[in-house]
Design goal:
2 domains; binds flavin-adenine dinucleotide; Vanillyl-alcohol Oxidase, Chain A, domain 3; alpha+beta
Amino acid sequence: MGVVSETGIAGLTLGGGYGWLTRKFGLSCDNLLSADVVTADGRWVRAGTGPDDDLDLLWALRGGGGNFGVVTSFEYRALPVGPELYVGFVVHAGSNARAALQGIRSFFEQAPEEVMSLAVVRKGPSIEEIPTEHHGKPVVIQLAVYVGDPTEGERVLHPARDIGSPIADLSGPMRYVDLQRLPDADYPAHELRNY
Ligand SMILES: Cc1cc2nc3c(=O)[nH]c(=O)nc-3n(C[C@H](O)[C@H](O)[C@H](O)COP(=O)(O)OP(=O)(O)OC[C@H]3O[C@@H](n4cnc5c(N)ncnc54)[C@H](O)[C@@H]3O)c2cc1C
C-alpha cells in the first residue's frame, strides 16, 4: 500500500508501489502473485506462474502501468504486520531544516531494512503538540516506522529522535492501519483537482 489510504491499489501496483513496508517486504508489484487481464482485443488472460498462465505478462504488469490491458483482479502475497508498530514522529523548525534533513539522512543510511522513513517540508499544522509560534510556518516532519517488534523499534529509532533540536516529538506505538491513514486529511479524496 501507499502512504495515503485513498490511493488506488490498481494504479499503485501496476506502477510499482512503495510505502511503509517497502524496505522490509518490497514494492507492491513484488507481492503481486497473479492478475486477471482483459486485453485490447477482448481476450481474457491470466498473468501468473501457473502452467496455463502468461508469465511474461505478469513480469510486464509489475511496473509496466496500464499498457498491457485492463486488470480486473489482483492476487497478492499477504504478510503479517503489527497490529502495532513503533512510529518515530518528530517535528523540526524550518530554520533548522538543513541540519535536520542531513541528520535524518545520515541516520537512515545505516538503518536496518525494518526501518522506513519519510521527511516532509511543509507548514506547521495547528495542533497543540506543536508550539503555536510554528503554526503555519515552515517545519520538517520526520516520520519513521520500524516494521517489527515495537519495543525493538523504540530502541532502534531512538537516535533518530535525538537529531537536532526537535520542537515536538509525538513518537510512540501506533496501529499499522492508523499509520497508513495518517496523512489522509492532507489529501482529501476527490477535492484536489491536480496531480
Ligand atoms: C495523494 C497521493 C498519494 C500517493 N502516494 C503514493 C505512495 O505512497 N506510493 C506510491 O507508490 N504511489 C503513490 N501515489 C501515486 C499512485 O500510486 C498513483 O497515482 C496510482 O496510479 C494511483 O492508482 P489508481 O488506481 O488511482 O490509478 P489511476 O490514477 O486511476 O490510473 C493510473 C494509471 O494506471 C492505469 N490503471 C488503473 N487501474 C488499472 C487497471 N485496473 N488495469 C489497468 N490499468 C489500470 C490507468 O489507466 C492509468 O494509466 C500517490 C498518489 C496520490 C494522488
